[in-house]
Q: What sequence folds into this?
């Protein structure tokens, strides 16, 4: 089955700093790479995704980059704000599994 | 995107009893997925529910413990049977849209 590793497991940053979370996958045939955000007590929500024909996608303060050669994709959050505090999950492409999650804490 | 109504939102149940969770989608979908999220953990797929056929269960999950119904393309139920405290968890239904998941609001189950 698909092997996925998500790092780091926890991440604390100061408000205004950047945060980067990385997900490594094993299936080279993958073509869709999503990231989910789960706030405390709420359902996971898709926040950004990328397809394999592009290397980067941005949506305001968040971006996803893809390195197909190295088989990893990363979530980048710039100018972090307290409301970015949540658990973030990657979901390996084409598979019904999720990464272990990263707890992001933004300290104000 | 699809809107999924899931109920109940939470319940406290006695061990040995069963609870049925319902999910209603506002559009027709081929597959619905049931996930479990234990406290502080990631999401684990329980099974995939297809309309008109038996659900497909993931390793570690069996039909006798988690029977699923899928009577039409907009509705599914998951039953947690003969519950024990280890079944205390959040259960989420979901659908795939354009590659990404949309989730129901979840059912927080506590077994005492």
A:
């Amino acid at each position: 089955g698909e092997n996925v590793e998500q790092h780091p497991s926890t991440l604390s940053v100061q408000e205004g700093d950047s945060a980067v979370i990385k997900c490594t996958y094993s299936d080279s045939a993958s073509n869709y790479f999503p990231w989910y955000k789960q706030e405390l007590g709420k359902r996971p929500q898709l926040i950004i995704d990328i397809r394999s024909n592009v290397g980067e996608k941005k949506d305001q303060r968040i971006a996803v980059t893809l390195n197909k050669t190295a088989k990893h994709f990363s979530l980048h959050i710039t100018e972090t704000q307290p409301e970015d505090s949540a658990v973030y999950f990657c979901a390996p492409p084409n598979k019904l599994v999720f990464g272990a999650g990263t707890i992001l804490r933004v300290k104000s | 995107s699809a809107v999924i109504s899931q109920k109940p939102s939470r319940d406290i149940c006695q061990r040995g009893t069963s609870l049925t969770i319902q999910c209603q989608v506002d559009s027709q979908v081929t597959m619905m997925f049931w996930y479990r999220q234990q406290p502080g953990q990631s999401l684990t797929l329980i099974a995939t529910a297809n309309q008109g056929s038996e659900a497909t269960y993931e390793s570690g999950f069996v039909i006798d413990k988690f029977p699923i119904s899928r009577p039409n393309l907009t509705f599914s139920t998951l039953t947690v049977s003969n519950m024990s405290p280890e079944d205390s968890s959040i259960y989420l239904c979901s659908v795939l849209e354009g590659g990404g998941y949309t989730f129901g609001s979840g059912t927080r189950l506590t077994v005492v």
User: Anything to note?
Assistant: Chain B is about 0% helix and 55% strand. The interface with chain A takes residues 33, 41-43, 45, 48, 92, 99-106 of chain B (CB under 8 Å). The mean pLDDT of chain B is 95. The two ends of chain B are 37 Å apart (CA to CA).
